[in-house]
Write a structure and sequence with these properties.
Layout lengths: L1 H30 L6 E6 L3 H9 L10 E6 L5 H14 L4 E7 L2 H5 L4 E4 L11 H22 L5 E4 L4 H10 L9 E3 L2 H15 L6 E2 L2 E3 L7 E3 L4 E4 L2 E4 H5 L2 H13 L1 H9 L5 H16 L7 E6 L11 E9 L2 E4 L7 H25 L1
Parallel strand pairs: 1-2, 1-4, 2-3, 4-5, 5-6
Antiparallel strand pairs: 7-10, 8-9, 10-11, 12-13, 13-14
Helix pairs in contact: 2-11, 5-6, 5-12, 6-12, 7-9
Keywords: NAD, Oxidoreductase, Tricarboxylic acid cycle
EC number: 1.1.1.37
Catalytic activity: (S)-malate + NAD(+) = oxaloacetate + NADH + H(+)
């Protein structure tokens, strides 16, 4: 009798263990349902540097499948096919599909994120207005395709120069895309500023935060470290206090960040590709997944008049991001030196806007 009772108890326990094990496995499989792929458009040949980063999860995280849409001009069609072959050969687990095309409508269809790297570069002897006219034409066509064929909530990052004004033109011809969903890349300049401070202080770049790029992605941009800090010996200290050299911060540091792109072109005979691609991933990553608590980043966004910047231009501000939305950091103290630099880069953007609109006419 005792042996029968013992057997019954063993059977009950075994059944319970099996039941709960199956329940745990079911719940685990439910929690690990693969996400729907996000469609990401990348335009232009620098896209060769960014697509493997996206496919590895650097942009949207290690658990987000993606479908890549790549757009380039007709003369680059064969090279584009080669990039598609390489993406297939790399066997990225997150990559669920590749669209490689020279057709702007096909490229824009149903995309959730658009990284606009393609543009017409200013060539030697070219007038500024000629370069602007070429880009206005390109962004007018691409904006119309996004307007009519992209997903309704599509987020757009403009990288091609003049990035701020290209973003402005894109919005002009994609009126149904929210203003807050069109941005331009100044994260590259932001990361350059962090890098210069980390080298100067011989600290890890990850310990430097809250630099700001104000204004235009051009040589008038203002890299500002008045509110930046560094973690050293377990404590957070102001960058300005640790550098202890105002002349360097007001002159060499600013000039180095402003001219870094030109210095790279001089050194490698090509424009920034790897760093631009990495910064574009950083920009979208933080925009979609959120900035770290207590940290802001720089993004070119539509001015709402904050800090006395005229509305109606795309201007780089310090922003925080949460749940796919960016917000301009408010209440930062602006000294006279900063005010002059911020106003100068705003004036350049106003002039660029007028030039771009004259090209439309």
């Amino acid at each position: 009798m005792d042996r029968l009772l013992l057997l019954q108890q063993v059977l009950v326990v075994s059944f319970s263990v099996v039941f709960f094990w199956k329940l745990i496995k079911y719940m685990w499989s439910f929690l690990n349902v693969e996400k729907e792929p996000v469609r990401i458009l990348v335009t232009g040949q620098i896209g060769y540097a960014i697509v493997p980063m996206i496919a590895r999860g650097a942009m949207l995280g290690p658990d987000q499948p993606v479908i890549l849409h790549m757009l380039d001009i007709e003369p680059a069609a064969e090279a584009l096919k080669g990039v598609k072959m390489e993406l297939i050969d790399a066997a990225f687990p997150l990559l669920k599909g590749v669209v490689a095309t020279t057709d702007v409508v096909e490229a824009c269809r149903d995309v959730n994120i658009a990284v606009m790297i393609g543009g017409f570069p200013r060539k030697e002897g070219m007038e500024r207005k000629d370069m602007m006219s070429k880009n206005v034409s390109i962004y007018k066509a691409q904006a119309s395709a996004l307007e009519n064929h992209a997903a309704p909530d599509c987020k757009v990052l403009v990288v091609a120069n003049p990035a701020n004004t290209n973003a402005l033109i894109l919005k002009e011809f994609a009126p149904s895309i929210r203003k807050k969903n069109i941005t331009c890349l100044t994260r590259l300049d932001h990361n350059r500023a962090l890098g210069q401070i980390s080298e100067r202080l011989a600290v890890h770049v990850g310990d430097v935060k809250n630099a700001i790029i104000w204004g235009n992605h051009s040589s008038t941009q203002y890299p500002d470290v008045n509110h930046a800090t560094v973690v050293t010996s377990g404590k957070e200290k102001p960058v300005r206090e640790l550098v202890a050299d105002d002349q360097w911060l007001k002159n060499e540091f600013i000039a180095t960040v402003q001219q870094r792109g030109a210095a790279i072109i001089k050194a490698r005979k090509l424009s920034s590709a790897l760093s631009a691609a990495s910064s574009a991933c950083d920009h979208i990553h933080d925009w979609v997944l959120g900035t770290l608590k207590g940290t802001w980043v720089s993004m070119g966004v539509y001015s709402d008049g904050s800090y006395g910047v005229p509305p109606g231009i795309v201007y780089s501000f310090p922003v925080t991001c949460e749940k796919g939305e960016w917000s301009i950091v408010q209440g930062l103290k602006i000294d006279e030196f900063s005010r002059a630099k911020m106003d100068a880069t705003a004036q350049e953007l106003i002039e660029e806007k007028l030039l771009a609109y004259s090209c439309l006419n």
